[in-house]
Amino acid sequence: MLVCVTLVAGAGWVFTKSALIEFPPHIFLAIRFSLAAFILAFLCWPALKQITKIQFYRAFGTGMLLGLTLLLWIVALDQSDSIGEGAFIVSLTVVFVPLIGRLFFGDQLTISLLLALLPAISGLALLSLQVTEDQSFSFSFERSHVYFVLSTIGFALHVILTSRYGQKIPAMPLATVQLAAIGSVAFISAIMTESWPAEIHAISWFWLLCSAVIATSLRFALQTKALIHLNPSHATMIFMLEPVWVAMLGALFLTERMSENQMLGCVLIFSALIVYRAPAFLTFWRRKSEVV
Asked: Most exposed residue of 33, 213, 216, 265, measured as fewest CB within 10 angstroms of its CB?
């Protein structure tokens, strides 16, 4: 089920990129997440009514942080020529979480994390490597790359704060309130910075509905149900599939192609994730061997 979640999440990048051809980024976010919040609220209304004011404020506050992060992410996605490249950058969230935890909360760093930093940084550097006509090399970080990196930091901070302040909040109500907060933040930003386009064709509304219903509401519902039966470490390993799906779907449906240095950069980033999760992999296989 969680593998299906990663596939749905990967498809969400394609849905969003397709919808952004006509929708302004923040207007798209506002409609997508407001609609998704409404659907989840309908599905978990009895549980949603049971949360306390403090739980609501904590869920809404962390949702606002996620909303601000998504404002950066959606602009990066709109400007990017490769959603696969962006997905691999964002996948570094799992590496940024302990780094930010160390910076703000004094969390302990592991050897596997320190070892993972080298391929992670090398991968980011390769994504910005440019080869000129005279075969010389230069580093030029695109604006979309900067926004993706900043959004990755925001995603990591959101994970940390949600894990600290949202542990005792039921998963579905927590997701519903956070989605509503994202919609609110995007709505305010859209009013301040964007105007409604002159014309939006039916196909763009179709992609928006796919993003809201499939890539957001269905994803959160499946993800919540799957995580009940999974160890968090094992779940994290499965989530590593998402950038792979995004790259494959981007190539299949958006005809995106990566250069050699971009592909190598993505491979190094994926290697960093594997190095960081190596202890969890070893523990998983050791337990499997003991069972057998």
From this structure: 213
